[in-house]
Specification:
This protein is mainly α. It contains 19 helices and no strands. It holds the Pfam family MFS_1.
Length: 455
Amino acid sequence: MTQATKATKIELFSLSTPAMRAFHLTWLAFFACFFAWFAVAPLMPVIKGEFGLTKEQIANINIAAVGITVAGRLVIGPLCDKYGPRATYTCLLALGAIPVLGIALAQSYEVFLFFRLLIGMIGASFVITQYHTSVMFAPNVVGTANAASAGWGNAGGGVTQSTMPWVLAAVLSLGVASSIGWRLAMVVPGALMLVVAVLYWKYTQDCPQGNYKDLRAAGVEIEGGKKGGWAIFKAAMGNYRSWMLFITYGACFGIELFVHNVAASYFVDRFKLDLQTAGMAAGSFGLLALFARAVGGMLSDRLAHRKGLDARTTLLFALMVGEGLGLLWFSRMQTAGMAVLAMIVFGLFTHMACGATYALVPFIDRKALGGVAGIVGAGGNVGAVAAGFLLKAVGDTQDCFAVLGFAALVSSVCAILVRFTAAHKASEQALYDKALAERLAQSGAPTPVGLARAS
């Protein structure tokens, strides 16, 4: 795939190009998946009472929600390389809607746990989102495109925290019993996924030139290689940078997932808030993704323009330090108001760190993009699973938050350890300069000497 075919700018209010259609539909698809993934979380206080769940059982449910996503994210990257993001995302949306709707049929803890485990598979949607924007946008804007699409999609987690309690309230207002009401409420996210699946298949394509199947048949070289698949994944596994970002993403997105799962219950149990108020408080964390992830990606792009590729890793380190300190502050708050304020502060750093991570992913190994995206994405869920087991071991959510704050500080070192050879930086700089030259040529402006600072 030639660099010239990629979009060198983000035309936010346009759907006229394949890149912008992919941009908008990929964040919408991720939004639908994220909304469905955590739709159960704000309803857990009701579900807990119906099934008589213990703390250990709730912890198992939280772990199940993010545990299987590790495998899903590792697999989905190579599938994108092999079959293309269009077919992969459409199948994930359609198949993922089945357990989202199916959980409404659960009549026991064991069945509920099983469906919650299956729902976790749709968390792999994130990798497809990042993959699709990575192949559609040029190096000068790919960080912003990745962060914005992921951020707006991630906002589904905040929207579901705020919305699902009100959806349940609306159902209950019709005279339906609570044991039936939460089940009917789950139809909303399941139906949304099916609608978006149709839109994705109809209006997107795999890359700027078309779909992988057709391009391979025509002998056109694409980023996933001639065949894609597991050879690409092996190459990604052999790159130590993939594993450094695996750890950092576990410490930012993993903590984000953990907060989505426990925040509403935390505000109910610790500060005695009602379900709707706790949902609004928890939702404020997720809604930060509307802009904070994008800010992380934009900062990464701007710093790379001025100081080169290594600036992206330095930014990630700084954001993770801010996340760790903010989380330690949040863990010590004694009032609901201050807890929400502290959560917003550490949430800003957390979301920006997530955006800065995937602003760096496209530059790790272009020939193994799907594999790298899958490995790093899986790191987020490994972090969430580890946080879930930590909560079981510690037994107190507040103390668990404090330990996670220290873990984020330690993990920030891995960002600094991501370094590139001079040849790699020179190659990426050439692609970056070329993308900027194309953008200037399209705007009719003269091309300046030295478009970007050399790395």
